[in-house]
User: Fold this.
Amino acid sequence: MPSWIIGDIHGCSAELAELLRRISPGPADHVIACGDLFHRGPDAVGVMDLLAGVGARFVLGNHERALLRRIGIAPLRHDGSDRGPIELRLPPLDAEDLDGDGRTPCECPVERREELVRFLQRGHSGYLLRRRDIHGAGPTSDGREWLVVHAGFEPNRRPEDCTINTLTSIRRLAERGRPWWYEGWVGPELVHFGHTHNAAPRTHSRGGRLVALGLDTGCVYGGALSAYSPELDELIQVPAIRATSVTRH
Assistant:
């Protein structure tokens, strides 16, 4: 029952479909997304339908958080346990209501906007997801715990003690030389994260063991969509069809 952790999808539904075809998850497997599911790319609804079809779990990224905060339903706890009751009705949603962080657009047909918000509200796993909270998920191939977060955390603090802003937005530390946050992480848990894209997955090891893996390989910018299984120690990538990042004029 392997787990497959997918980097930032950003509305790239064609590449996600091919990645899922290659992974071919069974009913007992786990698909987990690192957040930033919809914004920038061309097909938010396609991504939603594909993730729903495989029963995927996901942590909230900075773009989902911005959307849910605007509507007033963003969780304030790292595990999302304060999700609250599902609203019976939402107000009519304009395109701008679905904007992400920095007013980044989310391309979604008007008739499915409410469905997309419901998908986020009902389906998220908060801002931090540990292996022990995923029924049936196994440890890494060398027997360690692992977790998933969108951006990262301060390496000298427990992830649960970091602010939501840190979990969804951190890249570098406010220290001399401005190191990447993960360069200070010593493990032993393996952290999977997105947010900071790179042509190849970002890796950081301590004592000969991988302790941090960045899976945002910039599909929406023309890079690739990446997925990694900690149980199998296997990486699968699908190259982008084209750079598809969109902006609203």
Remarks:
- The chain has one domain: 3-149+185-239.
- Residues 3-149+185-239 form a domain with the Purple Acid Phosphatase; chain A, domain 2 fold (CATH 3.60.21.10).
- Strands lie at 3-6, 30-33, 57-58, 128-130, 146-149, 190-193, 202-206, 209-214, 224-229, 234-239.
- The CA atoms of residues 47 and 53 lie 10 Å apart.
